[in-house]
Amino acid sequence: MATPHGAGLAALPLLELSSAMIRPASKSDRTQICWLECACFGWERLLFGLWPRIGRRGISTWIAEVGEKAAGYSITYYRELDHQMVWYVGGIGVLQPYRHNGIAQQLMAAVFSDHPTLWLHVRATNRAALNLYEKLGMHELRRITRFYSNGDDAIVMVTHSYIN
Ligand SMILES: CC(C)(COP(=O)(O)OP(=O)(O)OC[C@H]1O[C@@H](n2cnc3c(N)ncnc32)[C@H](O)[C@@H]1OP(=O)(O)O)[C@@H](O)C(=O)NCCC(=O)NCCS
Questions:
Q1: Is the CB of 59 under 6 A from ligand 1?
Q2: pTM (two decimals)
Q3: Strand order from edge to edge, sheet including 69-81
Q4: In angstroms, what CA-CA distances link 30 with 16, 37, 66, 119, 136?
Q5: Could you give the number of structural domains in the chain?
Q6: Which structural domain range is residue 61 located in?
Q7: Residue 100 alpha carbon, nearest atom of ligand 1
Q8: Residues 64, 106 contacting (CB under 8 angstroms)
Q9: Residues 54, 48: Cα–Cα separation, whole Å
Q10: Does the beta carbon of 107 lie inside 6 Å of ligand 1?
């Protein structure tokens, strides 16, 4: 099957981006988002099986497009944190050639506009993502040792509004 990126990520030219267009994803974007997820995280996650629910209630998914091309996505849904159901960022990714252009920040701004109170897990070794969330004003709630299958720790991060 051909990828939505045509000749492959390596063939993309260096980009001069002003901004991406961010829009809510619909059912028809499911395949595209699965490809984005796999390109950003590998096949193992595959949206934790959530992809059939994209475009339905209870899941908020955004897609970032540069021109005609999908460049990034975010997926958010309700998940329990300390006995409360709170919107949870289950995935955010930007394709490698499009990174460092503020697309993740734009995606998170869209997520915040719908759900100002959020939480998420981030791999303790993922400096890029930790910086992103810190820059957006999120805080570390706790560390969970050996949370990921390879033994990496996770940091649980929350918005300021969750703490107050
Ligand atoms: C993390 C990720 C989503 C960032 O996407 P991006 O569009 O490149 O991020 P932005 O351009 O919006 O950067 C916003 C901020 O994030 C931080 N950041 C982003 N990439 C970084 C990097 N490689 N190293 C350090 N900090 C980084 C910086 O604070 C940056 O602000 P600055 O540009 O003022 O320095 C992207 O690297 C990615 O898709 N990684 C793979 C998937 C992943 O790890 N997702 C997060 C899971 S929790």
A1: no
A2: 0.90
A3: 21-24, 59-66, 69-81, 84-94, 118-123, 154-158, 139-144
A4: 27, 10, 18, 23, 27
A5: 1
A6: 20-163
A7: 11
A8: yes
A9: 12
A10: no
* Rounded Cα gap, residues 134 and 120, in angstroms: 12
Give CA angle at 119 (117, 123), nearest 5°: 155
The enclosing domain of 159 has a CATH number of 3.40.630.30
**Is 60 inside any structural domain?**
yes
User: What distance in angstroms lies between residue 23's CA and the mean position of ligand 1's atoms?
Assistant: 19
pLDDT by residue (tens digit) across 36-86? Answer: 999 998 877 776 678 778 888 889 999 999 998 999 999 999 999 999 999
Is the residue at 4 inside a domain? no
Is residue 18 exposed (0-12), middle (13-18) or buried (19+ Cβ within 10 Å)? exposed
Q: Is residue 32 in contact with ligand 1, taking CB distance under 6 Å? A: no
Residue 29 φ/ψ, nearest 5 degrees:
-95, 0
Q: Which residue, 47, 118, 132, is CA-closest to 86?
A: 118
Does some domain include residue 84?
Answer: yes
**25, part of any domain:** yes
